[in-house]
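Example 3.2
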Amino acid sequence: MPLFVNHLTRRAFLRNTALVGAAALSARSWAQVAGANGDLRVAVIGLNGRGKNHLGSLAKVAGVRIVAICDADTAVLARTKAANLVPADVRTYTDVRELLAANDIDAVTIATPNHWHSLGAIWACQAGKDVYVEKPVSHNVWEGRQLVNAAHKYGRVVQAGTQIRSGDGLREAVAWVQAGNLGKITVSRGFCYKFRGTIGKTSGPQPLPATVNYDLWSGPAPMAELHRKRLHYDWHWDYLTGNGDVGNQGIHQMDVARWFLGEAGLPRHTLSIGGRLGYMDDGNTPNTQVVIHDYATAPLVFEVRGLPAKSGAGGGDGGGSEVSDAKAGAMDKYRGVGVGNVIDCEGGSVVVPSYTEANAYDKAGKLIKSFKGKDAHMQNFIDVVRSRKVADLRGPILEGHVSSALCHLGNISHQLGRAASPGELHEKTLGNAPLAEAYGRMAEHLAANKVDLGRTPATLGVTLTVDAKAERFTGPDAAAANALLTRNYRAPFVVPQVA
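Structure, written as tokens:
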């Protein structure tokens, strides 16, 4: 019996009497199942935000048919069908377990909240489905590694939603830098300067939408009272379900920064400085943060800024995913980059201002080479599902796991940290030029937003020492830090250990 069955309740198993046969059938490669000579049959799980993008991307790929959709909110299911985003005869599910038991689904895409990513993908692997899973591929480091193991154990194609890796322009730029055309990398930087206004401050538990099955929505996370105005999207800013902007938008640029470095695993050390500053609301993740990962090749420095360039430039509720610059006001830029990367080298730099382009400059700032491409990530996933040549994946799950883990390491440092005075923060950065420079600019940015770090201090995270091979921590804070590598899962939504 496939391990997938172990995670179904007995009642659900009995209700789905064909489950064993279905899982056995779909565990074969796509080329062997019904429909192999016709359309590839795909289901989309999670339909807000990125899920709608998945529907649009799949619609552009020839030979793909969307046969099922799943969401714990029946209003979202109804809205998706009413908008004609899916075929009229598409099947709808609220329980992902029932969808995965179907024998006429070859692959799934997962665009749920972060806390469901690894479990949903592992269950899909165990049910014999290929998987496209959104970034970050995990809510914590341990479960991400279990997903990597599951993809290997069950022989599934698993694509991480790090679509920048599919652009030929960026791939060419990375290869060009790694070939030594600008000399040794001195620092690899990533930026997420993206407006995030307050999500509001509630005075007590909030009513849940009547259309939401909150047990299914919560899944492996605690079924906690809702203490924010909106259930949807603003889960990003609650550590129970999300990972802040470093693990939301920032995972893309964290991944690119590591990609340029050519580092395959975790760093030697990690440190975070930051906080949720400029307003008090129901969020608990940083809106302003500097994370530095100490790699042998060069340091990786990552920055989050959710406040505008100066006080008064932003406005309104900025929790939503479609906040425009007009609403947000002007955001800071670093050498022309707001959301992107800057890779400094001995002989120049590469600036990555978007998902699909990069520009190389010499030491004098003269443009010497440009790289351009386009997003073909979903097409790449479908191509590999058909070919079974996993080495051709542009976003292999191992790479997605490692870059997601970098975000989690930064958050662990922050969560174990303490409030520190500006003097302490300055002293902590002395002797580390990239960190000192990034923190200095962060302090200026906060001052421009009238944030007095003396009165509302930032959090100085703990310096984490990492055993990269074991994906665990060592040193004086190891016990507390290692406890945050995983979580207590809520039965029956338990992420399995996969050997």
